[in-house]
């Protein structure tokens, strides 16, 4: 297992070639994903290990990426805590009964994932079996702050009015919510590691909307709490924030092995600042995959030149877009595999 390119790169060990995968690679840009999705709604797919394993493996077969990320969503772990979740067609995730008061926090409980989230363990086992050692299997969750934005806003936030109002008026009760979510995230990630995840990524997608000061106060301590609580012998931890370039100094203090950059961040500068202590992941603009083959190769080369040969995992700067042609995704992966060879 320690031989996988991605795992070695994550620990800044020498690699023959830069590894590559794509956030949201198991998704709608693949016709074979849409075929499964026609027969089952999104949450049913997440909760049916056979379907989850099937779509997890699709990008490996279709575009030959260097890692499989198991199919699920960052939000599914909030359900067994006591938060009903719905995904209406075309309207994104909704929590009809959001957390807005101290009493609401009391009704949430930290559960054993082997009870409430056993479908995840089963899906991970199926994935490992079918990958059969070709590439590593990645686990993931949301980081506590991003999960809290969903629990409090009840949907994808725009200005994050509810959670920020709470933070500026009554930070101590909000901290109680973050601690509870961090406890659940920790046991959930350890459960994923016990059941076969070989690296784990924390998505703190919406922490990018915080000032550096507020990130240090209300998000970073809970991410650190999670990372400190992981049983991660040989399992690298990847930390991603969308629009998080202004948090990198703090992110670098939280114990993660890999800092995942979005496309707004200058890779060469990040490499200079954090390359001696961290592997960097990223960071092509997902829209670059709309480009011609020549342009995609040019963009890949640009990122490779900035990132260097050691301690880089190639990825997009955010999730794969649903209308990217499969052939362009193949062209992207092929470009990294050809241009990212280190003699
Ligand atoms: O990366 C992968 O391929 C693994 C699966 C995965 C999904 N979501 C599947 C999914 C992962 C790692 C996620 C993470 C996720 N989910 C994040 C963090 C990463 C990011 O994008 O910033 C967030 C914020 C969510 C919450 C979420 N899930 C939203 C806002 C939506 C609706 C928006 C949309 O893209 O449709 C989802 C749905 C979702 N999660 C889909 C997939 C494939 C689309 C579901 C469908 O088929 O209709």
The separation of the N and C termini measures: 23 Å
H-E string: HHHHEEEHHHEHHHEHEHEHEHEH
What binds here, in terms of ligands, is:
coproporphyrinogen III
- Please identify the structural class as seen in this structure: alpha/beta
Query: Which CATH top level class fits?
Result: Alpha Beta
The fold-level CATH name is TIM Barrel
Alpha-carbon Rg, integer: 19 Å
Number of helical segments with 4 or more residues: 15
Structure characterization notes:
Helix 13 links the parallel strand 7 and strand 8. 49% of the residues are buried. The protein starts with a helix and ends with a helix. With 343 residues, it is an alpha/beta fold. The protein is globular, with a radius of gyration of 19 Å. The model has no long low-confidence stretch (mean pLDDT 97). It contains 15 helices and 9 strands. The protein has one domain: TIM Barrel. Helix 8 crosses helix 10 and helix 10 runs parallel beside helix 11. A 7-stranded parallel beta sheet has the order 1-4-5-6-7-8-9. Coproporphyrinogen III binds next to strand 3.
